[in-house]
């Protein structure tokens, strides 16, 4: 469960990190990206461990709120699932069509960005 939460927070951070304050951005980057402990972050910023904990929890809630309103991560995931399904279908049903494979590769590359 913890790995899923870390992956989700990292994904939300990629989409919405630019909307965070500098302190929020730094704390989350260190906590989720660099695997710092709360104590290490507290030492780095000369604040209490509790202050870091509270800031990270509020920031997580902000990221979830952004996602609930904008759906950038959900749309990205749905788009990638649709492209994956299309790729699988083409490979099974049109394995000889090189033009279709080339076009599909371009779509898949765009979706991955």
From TrEMBL:
Record keywords: DNA-binding
Pfam families (alphabetical): UPF0122
Gene Ontology MF: a single term: DNA binding
Family according to the record: Belongs to the UPF0122 family.
Purpose of the protein: Might take part in the signal recognition particle (SRP) pathway. This is inferred from the conservation of its genetic proximity to ftsY/ffh. May be a regulatory protein.
Entry protein name: UPF0122 protein ACFQ5J_03880
Organism: Lacticaseibacillus baoqingensis
Highest classification ranks of the organism: Bacteria, Bacillati, Bacillota, Bacilli, Lactobacillales
């Amino acid at each position: 469960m913890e790995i899923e939460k870390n992956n989700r927070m990292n994904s939300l951070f990629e989409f919405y990190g630019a909307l965070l304050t500098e302190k929020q951005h730094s704390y989350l980057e260190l906590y989720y990206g660099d695997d710092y402990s709360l104590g290490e972050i507290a030492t780095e910023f000369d604040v209490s461990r509790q202050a870091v904990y509270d800031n990270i929890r509020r920031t997580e809630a902000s990221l979830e709120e952004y996602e609930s309103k904008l759906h950038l991560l959900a749309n990205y995931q749905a788009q990638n699932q649709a492209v994956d399904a299309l790729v699988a279908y083409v490979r099974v049903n049109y394995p000889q069509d090189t033009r279709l494979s080339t076009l599909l590769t371009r779509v898949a590359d765009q979706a991955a960005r």
